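Reply to dn_fold:

You asked what the input looked like. This is it:
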Amino acid sequence: MFEVGFSELLLVSVVALLVLGPERLPVALRSVGRGVGQARRAMGQLRAQVEREMDLPGLDEPALRQLERDIRQGVSLDDGVATEHRS
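and this is what came back:
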């Protein structure tokens, strides 16, 4: 995804050290690490939930097509605004 080399990491480290100072740098790095960990856990949970929902029994191709037809029949897009048709 991101191609970060040693020179870029060294540059960011030096700038962070100059901006934050040696006292606040460990605290800032710990906060960033926690945030990255939370984001990874959230993405893992989201991925697991999507995989569970895709493996639900009874959702075969005809059922999905019928669901799509029902949704399209119930909702109409008119000038960019969704409106519901009453049967």
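The chain has one domain: 6-84.
Hope that clears it up.
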